[in-house]
Design a protein that fits this description.
- The protein is of the alpha+beta class and 501 residues long.
- The chain has a domain of 256 residues: DD-peptidase/beta-lactamase superfamily (Beta-lactamase), CATH 3.40.710.
- A six-stranded mixed β-sheet has the order 3-2-1-6-14-15. It has a five-stranded antiparallel β-sheet with strand order 8-7-19-18-17.
- β4 and β5 form a beta hairpin.
- It is elongated and about 110 Å long.
- The termini are far apart.
């Protein structure tokens, strides 16, 4: 009897080992091959679309940017975007054929209910045979400011973008690009419609699937003079430091000369102060400042503001794909020192987008402390309970509080009596900087820029605007004429001033 029991035990043990080996093989060794088998693709999709994906909300907790509701057929839930074009650069898309973008991708673990923080609720749902529900993602977006930003750039003939940030927290209050797209077109369950929409969006030269606000790069022009001014302040040259103010700047190792915008001569005499040069946006003076500081100190200051050494870098954390600005490495200037002068005025190989320039303004507004941009603040489970929070995070300190205050005062002068006068708001002190960036060929209209924050004494919002190819004014455009009025509208909306929303 004992012998028979032992044989039965050995047999059961062998079967158990065989079962364990088979399960291990299926789940580990062959898992990828089985999952990639075309025969299982639709089954996987059916399982994925059986989950009621979580909502994406604005900061007011009532404005819904994306949600899922029951559909027809084998795919149980469909994704919907109530105001898709306005928020496409934030939500991204959830496509049956082409995957996910923006928050739909970066927050997928939460939205799909697969995050570890949601495990207790997910287990309960499975035990009770209830549909698994994803978590709600709460963003920092303010619907009123987003509406004002998108409305302000909606009619631009060549497009543009706006970003608004709360300096004290890094919260992104608005982020809008033109052109935009409706994520519903590629997030439906109509396969032919999805393919048509995808081809149309990818054929659009404006690249609506790649938001101009934070994922494309452009020469920042004179808005970059804020970084150059910060570098001067940090290296001992105060607002009252005097700089040569010739009609044009002789550049080293070349016969070329640097001129002010429109060939004008900045007023104030043969030497003017750093503050007055910023107020008038003098290319000649700032080119000279760049040459004086040199590429090492210029690059060091640019890095502190989040500018990368190349487009492959990704040091500034953000909840969606972000191409931070680029300032060349010092080695890029070897043999061509004249390029330092052009880089100091936001040309040469310097590039940025509104998110990057809003971060520059935000750091100056926040006493020299740059907070990483934040787009998500909370994750809530299907019962509304907060399961995860994201706190503000300091990225760097590009300049001291004293120098930040000095640069703030210089920016206030730009708006009160300089190139940024179109951003003036009665009863509100606005600090800003204009930019008119050359790009492409000599006959290409410039990009018009403006970056600002307000109120200057207690900053609540920092804004950056780009208007591509001069907007309605074409070659006659300047940042002060074209971009500053847009920034004014966004600031008014952020401060609750009538006319801004």
């Amino acid at each position: 009897m004992d012998k028979q029991i032992r044989r039965l035990g050995y047999a059961l043990l062998a079967l158990f080992v065989l079962l364990l080996a088979t399960v291990s093989y299926v789940q580990v060794v062959a898992a990828a091959r089985i999952a990639d088998n075309p025969a299982n693709a639709f089954r996987q999709l059916v399982a994925e679309y059986r989950v009621q994906r979580g909502r994406i909300l604005a900061r007011d907790l009532t404005t819904v940017l994306a949600f899922s509701k029951k559909g027809a057929g084998e795919l149980k839930y469909g994704r919907h975007y109530p105001d898709g074009r306005r928020y496409s650069g934030i939500t991204g898309y959830y496509s049956l054929l082409f995957g996910r973008g923006e928050l739909e991708q970066s927050q997928n673990q939460f939205l799909s209910g697969n995050a570890a923080e949601l495990l207790p609720q997910t287990l309960v749902d499975k035990i009770l045979s209830r549909p698994v529900q994803g978590a709600t993602v709460v963003t920092t977006i303010d619907p009123a400011i987003q509406k004002a930003a998108c409305r302000a750039i909606a009619s631009l003939p060549h497009g543009g973008a706006v970003v608004a940030i709360e300096p004290a927290t890094g919260d992104v209050l608005a982020m809008c690009s033109n052109p935009a797209y409706d994520p519903s077109d590629i997030s439906s369950q109509d396969v032919p419609q999805i393919r048509r929409a995808w081809r149309r969006l990818n054929a659009d030269p404006g690249q609506p699937l790649v938001p101009r606000a934070d994922a494309q790069l452009f020469p920042p022009g004179s808005t970059f003079k804020l970084v150059t001014a910060a570098a001067a302040l940090e290296n001992g040259y105060g607002p009252d430091s005097l700089w040569p103010n010739p009609a044009s700047l002789t550049l080293p190792l070349t016969s070329h000369r640097l001129h002010n915008f429109g060939g004008e001569i900045c007023s104030g005499g043969s030497h003017i102060t750093l503050a007055d040069a910023l107020r008038q946006s003098c290319n000649v003076v700032f080119g000279g400042i760049g040459l004086k500081l040199g590429p090492d100190r210029m690059a060091e200051e640019a890095r502190k503001f989040g500018f990368a050494a190349d487009t492959a870098s990704g040091d500034v954390p953000f909840d969606v794909p972000f191409r931070e600005g680029v300032f060349p490495t010092p080695s890029a200037f070897v043999g061509q020192p004249a390029s330092v002068a052009f880089s100091a005025i936001g040309q040469f190989d310097v590039s940025a987008n509104p998110m990057q320039m809003a971060l520059v303004a935000s750091a100056i507004a926040n006493d020299g402390v740059l907070l990483a941009p934040r787009l998500v603040t909370q994750i809530r489970d299907s019962q509304g309970q907060i399961v995860k929070t994201f706190e503000p995070a300091e990225y760097s300190r590009p300049l001291t509080a004293e120098h930040a205050h000095q640069l703030r005062d210089m920016m206030v002068a730009v708006v009160q009596s300089g190139t940024g006068y179109a951003a003036q708001i009665p009863g509100v002190t606005v600090a800003g900087k204009t930019g008119t960036a050359q790009h492409g060929g000599a006959n290409e209209p410039p990009h018009a820029w403006f970056t600002a924050f307000a109120p200057a004494e207690n900053p609540q919002v920092a804004v950056a605007v780009i208007v591509l190819d001069g907007g309605d004014l074409g070659s006659d455009a300047t940042g002060g004429r074209v971009a500053a009025p847009i920034a004014k509208q966004v600031i008014e909306a952020a401060l609750g001033i009538s006319g801004g929303a």
